[in-house]
Structures are given as C-alpha cells and as structure tokens.
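Subject: for your reference before the review

Hello V.,

The reviewers asked for a structural picture of the protein, and I figured it would be easier to keep everything in one thread rather than splitting it across files. Below is the amino acid sequence we used in the manuscript, unchanged from the supplementary table.
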Amino acid sequence: MKTQILFFAQLKELLGCPGVEMSLDTPLSVAELRSKLIEEYPEWKAHLQSGQVLQAVNHTLVNNEALVQPGDEVAFFPPVTGG
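And here is what came back from the structure prediction:
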C-alpha cells in the first residue's frame, strides 16, 4: 500500500520536491521510514537527519518511535516559530 510522504517549508525547497510515495507492506517506525528514504535518496541525508526536522503521522506530531502504517500520511517539516 502506498504511503504518502510530504515535505513542507524550507525542507521542501532543500529536497527539491513536495513529497514522495513509498510502498509499505508492514508498519515501520518513523526512524525506520526516514532511514528508508535516505537509502533511496542519499542526497537527502543531511536534511532528513537534521535534529531540526519534526514529523507528523496523519496530522499528529510524533516522535521517532511512532509507527507508520501502510497508507498513512507522513509529513516532515522544520520547527515553526511565531511572534
């Protein structure tokens, strides 16, 4: 099943695309998904491994141990500040 992976804000600009689709047959942790993305797109490593990237699964902020189910939507984005 296809899992939609989206990139937002500056991260989208740095990676050069708004997102990708990845086929998942079994659940993965966010950390495992990130590793799989880096394996497929090694040029993204510096940007995706940065401690400055947050992630959400189905519109809920999660940590690296959260499980991504096949068909979920995952978003990676930089922290947002406001004033």
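For the response letter, the relevant points are probably these. The chain is about 25% helix and 35% strand. Helices lie at 9-15, 30-40, 45-48.

Happy to draft the paragraph if you're swamped.

O.
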